[in-house]
Amino acid sequence: MTVEWTAGVVAALAGTVLGAVGPQVVGRLPEPDPDPDDDPAEAARHPAKVAYADLAARPGLARRLALWAGAVCGVAGLALGWSAALPAYILAGAVGVWLAWVDLRVHLLPDRLTGPLFVGCLGLLGVAALAGGAWRDLIRALLGAVLLLAFYLLLALIRPSDMGLGDVKLAAVLGLLLGWLGWGALVVGAVLGFLLGGLGGLAVVAAGRGGLRTAIPFGPFMLAGALLGVMWGEQVAAAYVGAL
C-alpha cells in the first residue's frame, strides 16, 4: 500500500468516527433567534424551521453522516498524503458533512459550527506550520480566508436574497484551507463552488421543483467545490496557466 493510500485509509477512519457524532452535536445546537426585521406576513407563508433536535433524531443519520464523512476525509487523505496539515482537512471534512446536511434541510449554516471549525482549522494549520516551518503557507492561508470572506461578503451585500451570512462565514473556513495549498487551489475551489451551485439551480428548474429565482442552499456546493480544489486545484491552475 502506497503512502497516499495509507493516509487515505487513516483519514477515512478518522472521518467516519467524527461523522458519526454529528447528530449528537447538531441536536445540541441552539435554535436561531427570529430576525426582528422579518416581515411577519412573509414569514407566515413559509413553513417553520425544523428543530435541530428533531433533525438529529432521524433514524440512521449517524450511519449516513459517518459514511459521507469517511468518504470525504479519505479523498482528502489521498490528495494530501501524510501532510502535517492533514488533521485540519479531516476536521473540516467531517464538520463540512454536518454543515452540508443541515444546510440542505433548513437552509442555515449554524455559527456554532462554522466558528469553532475556523478556530480549529487555524489552530491545526498553525501546529503544522510550527512543525514544518511552513509559515509562508500559513500566511497565504490567512490571506485566502480574508479574500474569500471579503468576496462573499460583497456578494451578500449586493444580493442578500441569494447569499447569506452563513455562506460568508463558511467562505472564511474554505479560503483558509484552500489558501494553505496554494493560490491555484483557492481560485479553482471557489470557482467550482459557483459552477456546481449554478448546475444545482438548473437541476431544480429542470426537475420542476422551482424557478430561476428559487433559493437553494449554497453551502453544500461551496464545500463540494472546495473538496475538488483540494484534490486537483493546483494541477488545474498550473495546466491553465501553462496553456496561456
Concise account of the structure shown:
The protein has helices spanning 3-20, 22-26, 40-44, 52-56, 61-80, 86-106, 111-132, 135-158, 165-181, 183-206, 219-243. By secondary structure, it is mostly helical. Helix 5 packs antiparallel against helix 6.
Largest sheet: none
Given the structure, what is the number of helices?
Answer: 11
* Backbone shape: globular
Terminal Cα separation, in Å?
38 Å
**Could you tell me the number of beta strands?**
0
Strand content: under 5%
The H-and-E topology, N to C, reads as: HHHHHHHHHHH
Structural class: mainly alpha
Mean pLDDT: 90
- The percentage helix is over 70%
Radius of gyration: 18 Å
Poorly predicted residue ranges: 41-46
List the helices and strands and how they pair.
Elements: H1 3-20, H2 22-26, H3 40-44, H4 52-56, H5 61-80, H6 86-106, H7 111-132, H8 135-158, H9 165-181, H10 183-206, H11 219-243
Helix pairs in contact: 1-5, 1-6, 5-6, 5-11, 6-7, 6-11, 7-8, 7-9, 8-9, 9-10, 9-11, 10-11
Describe this structure in words.
The chain has 244 residues and is mainly α. 76% of the residues lie in helices and 0% in strands. It is globular.
Key structural traits:
single chain, 244 residues, mainly alpha, 76% helix, globular
